[in-house]
Amino acid sequence: MSVDTGRTDSVFPRVEVPAAVRDCLKVPFVSVIIPVLDDPEGLRACLTALAAQTYPAGRFEVVIVDNGSGSPPSDVVAAHDFARLEIEPAPGSYAARNRGIEVARGEVLAFTDADCLPAPDWLERGIAALVAGAPGIVAGRIEAFPKTPGKPTPVELYDILYGYRQRFAVENNHSCFTANVLCPRSLIEDVGPFDATLLSGGDMEWSRRAHWRGYPVRYADDTLVRTPARGSLRALIRRTRRFAGGSRGLRRLREAGTPWLARPPSRWPVRREDLRLLFSYPQAPVSAKLLTMAVALLVRASFAFESARLRLGARPLR
Question: pLDDT of 94-130, one tens digit each?
């Protein structure tokens, strides 16, 4: 018996799909993963920024991973129905991010930090950049800002100019900072999670590993995350010492024969950058820029000091 397959309306009547459902079918579900350690106020501001996203409601979740806070930010997370709290006792932000990856439900994973403020269209523009090219890593712009708009202190100005040079990292080193990154879950399933043995520099190792396996690392200037510039020299030097620990860990991996780290990371053109200070950030007076050069010298000295301390067998800072 022949069956007429030309008309099915009588069996399966046509139903108009609601616009909201159509929109959900067009966009991937995203998991935003945020490690946190003793920063409830920063996390509160970050979640408030994520609540204002233009990305379709219900198409993203936020996974907060507490990494040993004296008081886990349960109340802060509970105030947002799109967020949930996980605990990772192993020290290190990369261990925390790996925990977030394990429990995330998204087909796309986005990473930022608890002290960051994603722009309202952060996810929307990040996903657009992700689907515009071959599957890979999208690294968005990270913009530090001073406490007083237009009037940075010398320490803040240093952090604004040098703290988060995402474009430079992508274009010169095929690496990125996880304060603003999106990638398909399938990429992590292929290249593996972050190296949790590293307390700093794990984002560089992971992105270089992905590039080595053939995934592009692309910079997206319109995918913006803002973060307060470090305002104290003590905080800036502590971060620099953590970077020195990460550099030491990466060197050990390179010496062990890790292929994606075989080429030493590009040297940052520090002296050229010092001259660039005189022409950057026109709001700041020349006197502040000259003081920022002095801050740069202290930062380099602290990096050298910490590198020497680590060579003598000291443990890296967390």
Answer: 999 999 999 999 999 999 999 999 999 999 999 999 9
| Alpha helices for 52-153 (secondary structure H) | 74-78, 93-103, 122-131
The whole-model pTM stands at 0.85
Closest by CA to 109, choosing from 196, 11, 190, is 190
The rounded mean pLDDT for the chain is 86
One-letter identity of residue 182: L
Angle, CA 89 vertex, CA 206 and CA 139 arms, to 5°: 25
**CA 177 → CA 126, 255, 260, 282, distances in Å?**
15, 23, 17, 26
Q: Can you tell me the distance from the alpha carbon of 285 to that of 282, in angstroms, rounded to the nearest whole number? A: 7
In whole angstroms, give the CA distance from residue 232 to residue 235. Answer: 5
C-alpha 141/C-alpha 227 separation (Å) is: 11
Give the position of tokens 């890296």: 316
Helix or strand or coil: residue 121?
coil
